Each structure stands twice: as C-alpha cells, then as structure tokens.
Prior knowledge:
The complex is a heterodimer of chains A (420) and B (84).
Chain A: H1 21-28, H2 38-48, H3 60-69, E1 75-80, H4 89-96, H5 98-112, E2 116-122, H6 126-138, E3 145-151, H7 160-167, E4 191-195, H8 196-214, E5 217-218, E6 221-222, E7 225-231, E8 238-242, H9 248-254, E9 264-267, E10 273-276, H10 277-281, H11 287-292, E11 301-305, H12 311-324, H13 331-334, H14 336-349, H15 354-367, H16 375-389, H17 391-398
Parallel strand pairs in A: 1-2, 1-4, 2-3, 7-11
Antiparallel strand pairs in A: 5-6, 7-8, 9-10, 9-11
Chain B: E1 6-10, H1 20-24, E2 29-31, E3 37-39, H2 47-59, E4 65-69
Antiparallel strand pairs in B: 1-4, 2-3
Amino acid sequence: MGGRGARLLGGPARAEGTEHWESHLRRLGALGIEGAAGHELVQEVARSGLQGRGGALFPTATKLTMASASRGTPIAVVNASEGEPASQKDRSLVELRPHLVLDGALVAARAIGAPEVVFYLHRARRGSTAALERALWERPPEGVAWRLVDAPAGYVTGESSAVVSYLEGQGALPRRRSAPAAVRGVAGRPTVVNNVETIAHLALIARFGWKWFRSAGDANGPGSTLVTLAGELPVPGAVAEVLGPTRLGQLLSGVGGLGRPPQAVLVGGYEGVWLNGASAWEMPVARGLLAAHGISLGCGVIAALNSGSCGLATTARLVRWLASESAGQCGSCVFGLPAVSALLDEIARGTALRRDLRRLRQLSCVVTGRGACGHPSGVMALVDSALEVFSAELRRHLHGRCCPAVHYGFPLPGHQEGLE
Amino acid sequence: MTEGGWRLSLDPAACDGHGICALRCPDRISLDGWGYACVDGTAIDDPRVLGRAYRAAAACPAGALTVVPEGGRHEHKSPAVPAA
C-alpha cells in the first residue's frame, strides 16, 4: 500500500478493506465542486498536466476540452476493465477507495456537463462491482445517473474505441473512428473514456489544486503514479504509489521483497519492453524521465524475471496468449501474431534455425504499425525487446541448447500457475 | 492541411485481402505475405497516381480503402500500448 504521504492509496490500511463513505468524508472532506463551472474544472486539470494512466498517457484536459466543445449530450466513462493480466492498480482503487473513484467521476462529468457516468467493468471481477454498488448506495443523490456496465473480459476489450463500440451495442472490438471519441463517441455523443487511476487523480486535483498535484512526479510526468509489482517476486502483485524520486530497485526490494537485481524486468505490461535487470535496478521510476529515454511505464506494471528463468520461453508463452487475444479483425494480427508465436516457440524449444530468426525480424517489420489498434505493434515491441535483452540466451537457443526452466511467474487469465 | 491534398486511407479491420487494390495502384499499395494491403498513406502529388488511387479504392470489394483529404483522421495509429 501507499505508505507515508500516499495520495490515491492514503487512508486506512489495505487489510481494512473497502473505505466507506463516512471514513472517506472524514479523511478528505466534501468534494465541493457544486459551485465550480465546467471550464474552471477543465482549466484546473489542464494546469495539473494529468496524463491518462491506462497506458497511452494522453493529456486528460485535452479530452475534456474536446468533449466540452463538441455537439451533443456528453457521457463520462470510467474504464475499469484493466485487461492487463498482471495489473492490479485499478481494481485495488475501485475495491479499496470506491468513493475516491466516484468523486473523480463526478469531477469529469461536471467538467464536460455530462448527466451520465458509465463504469465499464469486466464481468469476472465481482469484487469491483460489489464495492461500487455498495458505495453508490452509501452516497447521497448527486444529480448524475450512474450506470455499471458488464463488459466482456479480454486484452483488447478495454481499448477506448472498443469501449465506445460496446456501449453502442456492438461488440467490444477496437474500431477506427472518423473522429476521436471525445468529439463523436457513443451514438455520436461526446464520450470521455478515462482509466480508473486517472479518474481518482481528478478527485484529488479538484480538492487540493494543480500545484499540489504537480508537487509529486516530475515535470513531464506530473503527479503520483500507481505501479503493480508483478512477476517472479517473493511478494507478487503488490500495488505501490510512487510520489517522488524512487529507483526501481527500491520498489522491487522494499515492496516486492526481492533481495538482488533480477535477470530482467518487463516494464509497461505484457505489451511493454524487457530491460536488463541490473541496469533497470538503478532506473528512476518517473514517467517523464523514462519517457525521455523512450520507455513508457504504460499501465504501471513492472514484472521481474528470475535469473533461473528463461526470458525467451517466458516471452513465447506471453506471445502465445496475446496472439489468442486478437480481436480477429485485421489480417496482419490474425495471421501475423500466430506466425510470430510459432517462431518464438521454436526458438524457446531450441529447434529454431538462423533463418527462423531472420523470418521473425521480417515479420516484426510487416506487423508493426498495422491494424485497427495498437495490439500487433505492442506484441512486436515485446518480441523485439526480448531478442535484444536476451541476445546471449538467443545464441544458445539457436545452437539447440534450451534453458533449464520456465517458472510461469507471469499470470495469465485462465492459466493456473505451474500447470500447463 | 494542404489545400486540395489527398491520400489513401485503409481500414485494416475491413480489409479482407482481395488484393485488387495492389493491381490498380501499385504506386502506393503492396500486399503482405497473407495478401493484405500495406498502404503508403502519405500525400499524393501526382494526378496520375491519384487517379489510380481512386480506382483502387473503387475496386475494393470490402470498402476498406478510401481516398481522404490530407490531414484527415483515418491514419494508422502509431505503435502504442493499449489501455490496461
């Protein structure tokens, strides 16, 4: 949990479970935005520099401004789908601090003048739905209509165009739209889709102001940030809030319980990039600083790989699953990802030839940048970084020597750890 | 947006890999190993190429290919991590 000075995760300890309305009010006071005009709220968010925490880091104020300036009755959507298998931050916020999330949703709705707030949740996550239903029952009427929508589970069903598509009564599939959702979204209405963490930050920005918000984080990535420490750790799946200068090693040892640098670290989720463990250990966990080096914290997942594990076999296993999560719409994804997966499996088994590696690199060029969403590009970024970071293992594998073990420390939906 | 500039735009989710477009406008369209279109979506200056681009778009049985004003929105998304 948050620890000293925590913002989003401040308040009662995790073990105390869901924070109730009275405790929330006692701790943070009333939201107090009744008197504020929409454009004042948007301006406050713009000054805060808040960026979307679903992974894309799009400036939140830009979405709000687009929606306010567009025709039609706006809708505010809170994206709680969190399809990234290792990520725990959004469900932690919804289940532990539902009132903070609901406050933030009110700020977003008030800022764009939306009479309706939609929560987009995955069906399997009963705990999140229960926490929200209970929280809504505790709160006084607030002049907006709350809707909880059960969305189908999946890796790409939380992509914002898939969210809009599902709310329009079609499948939860990524679509290319003629205009941004914030301009013309659900049924042509301006639709602002924000990640749960982004929304929770709004609740605090509205209370304490943009200057306070910017006193955490760095200039190019302002505000505190939630990370999930996952993978092969003594304490896997813990959520931590990073407020100031912190090195990755501090998080992995202090929160994840790791005694020494891991072999490698996967940063930004399963479509993130592998980094060498020893050099990543000293890396600052700051969104802006990392972005300057071309590394995105994305959805905040930081997953460690043991020195005893095989990075190529682990990547092959992740890619096999990611390929199966394709929405099945675009040829480059439908045919490209299974082909990539098959080649990686050959490499992991030690049965690949040099020409298979050449073919894999060619496929990377063919698949990257195509498709209606970022899924194929994300998978290829993972693969490309694996070939680079695990280049020594790659040489061994191409000579027919497999690594000893895969530990399955990276959770996948529907897969029991260690059993495959 | 350039006055009067045009470019090709592909909806990859709609493309079914018929491949007729690549015959009509090889200047801007090639096919990948599975037969799906790879489109160069930069501005078209040559009017003859623009004519072929229009014929390619008109020939697409899936309606996946269109000629749009330069600076229009239908572009390839840059590689990005999808929302968690």
